[in-house]
Amino acid sequence: xxxxxxxxxxxxxxxxxxxxxxxxxxxxxxxxxxxxxxxxxxxxxxxxxxxxxxxxxxxxxxxxxxxxxxxxxxxxxxxxxxxxxxxxxxxxxxxxxxxxxxxxxxxxxxxxxxxxxxxxxxxxxxxxxxxxxxxxxxxxxxxxxxxxxxxxxxxxxxxxxxxxxxxxxxxxxxxxxxxxxxxxxxxxxxxxxxxxxxxxxxxxxxxxxxxxxxxxxxxxxxxxxxxxxxxxxxxxxxxxxxxxxxxxxxxxxxxxxxxxxxxxxxxx
Length: 268
Known about the structure:
Layout: E1 13-17, H1 22-33, E2 37-42, H2 45-59, E3 64-68, H3 74-88, E4 93-96, H4 111-136, E5 141-146, H5 159-179, E6 184-191, H6 200-203, H7 208-213, H8 224-234, E7 246-249
Parallel strand pairs: 1-2, 1-4, 2-3, 4-5, 5-6, 6-7
Helix pairs in contact: 1-8, 3-4, 4-5
């Protein structure tokens, strides 16, 4: 997709972690559509290179770069941010999107899987946000971390993911307070269930997918582009006075409970 008319992010430079597929790739594409230059990073060289090529084919090689990245490693994150500044001359926008999960009942969740999910989703976000903020000092900046409705509306069998995303919200708010004086805003986008390669087994499940969908008032699962649109707002000039906010994008799923009228006391 290309966008015509005014490019609200023209001249801005962005980094997107976990940018080789799904939500991260959609975010990178939207930022490019809005005029930014973008560096994407992820594990898996072939998938990353293919994603970067697809983006470059649409938006031009001069505006797209890629670099292998492991957000579990501080040196890798710092090198990633440094590469963006070296390649494009500055850094204005950082999207901490890299994530993973592991399914297990709480009593069966082992230490190794707990640690890995926390290290990628929470500690990886911390490393990305901190390194990016240091590179932004001296000019206005925008940091967005991809959280989840799981931060406050947990699901069973993914305790480590629920805990990591709840931690991301606390981290985001802490950073927002401290970085406001530096003219750097820090916000989060909290997706509900978005149809991606990672969620396809649930979304397409004939029983559980249909049951899940019944709890989404909007009547559909989210798309990566829905989340990218929310990110695009938070990194825009229109959101210059928005910081410390968790923007939930879930089709209304976590608004409340559907209570049938006939079960309400005093109903006709």
